[in-house]
Write a structure and sequence with these properties.
The chain is mainly alpha-helical. It has one domain. Helix content is 66%, strand content 3%. The protein is built from six helices and two strands; from the N terminus they run ααααββαα. Strands 1-2 form a two-stranded antiparallel sheet. β1 and β2 form a beta hairpin. α1 packs antiparallel against α5 and α4 runs antiparallel to α5.
């Protein structure tokens, strides 16, 4: 379980790092577009399309697993905060399993859709012709890694480990206690 947790944490970190690079590139792209639009009245062609069809997909789906590793997703704990540690472990473990099931379906369906769109060579035509099928593969990639993180987290919680309940870092969420990066 140690190697699996470390591998998943590393993969999650890597996808989140790619997401950060995409965010930086998007910021630079949009900023350059605005500058060119107002300084020389020549905006960059396709800025909205590239941002919408490529960047936003990467920004949403690549860091999903890393956010889960850090217990960073939104949680409403109206009832759970009043439960004992054992009941919280059980509740959150079951929720992790239910979430893993949902994200498995999402990964499977979006993967099927991505393959279909790749086959037909899906494009968006406007000021430029932009292939939009490649970022469709980011959905099953991000959701698939999230499923693995959720399963490891559920196994640890249902096995009696309370570390994934703590907010903090990757070490507490999916890496076995005391494991260093």
């Amino acid at each position: 379980m140690t190697r699996i947790g470390n591998l998943l944490a590393s993969l999650s970190d890597s996808l989140a790092a790619i997401g950060r690079l995409v965010l930086l590139a998007t910021m630079l792209h949009v900023t350059l577009d605005v500058i060119l639009r107002f300084v020389i009245n020549q905006p960059l062609a396709g800025t909205v399309e590239i941002s919408s069809y490529w960047s936003m997909v990467a920004l949403v789906f690549l860091p999903l697993a890393a956010v889960e590793c850090r217990n960073g997703h939104i949680a409403v704990e109206i009832v759970a905060q009043h439960l004992g540690e054992r009941a919280q472990r059980l509740l959150i473990g079951v929720v992790c399993l239910a979430s893993a099931f949902f994200y498995t379906l999402l990964a499977w369906r979006s993967g099927h859709e991505a393959i279909e769109k790749m086959r037909i060579g899906e494009k968006y035509s406007s000021a430029m012709e932009l292939p939009i099928w490649p970022p469709r593969f980011l959905l099953p990639l991000g959701c698939g890694l999230l499923v693995l993180v959720l399963l490891v987290k559920a196994v640890r919680l249902l096995g009696g480990d309370s570390a994934p309940l703590q907010t903090g870092g990757l070490d507490e969420a999916i890496r076995p206690s005391g494991d260093a990066r």
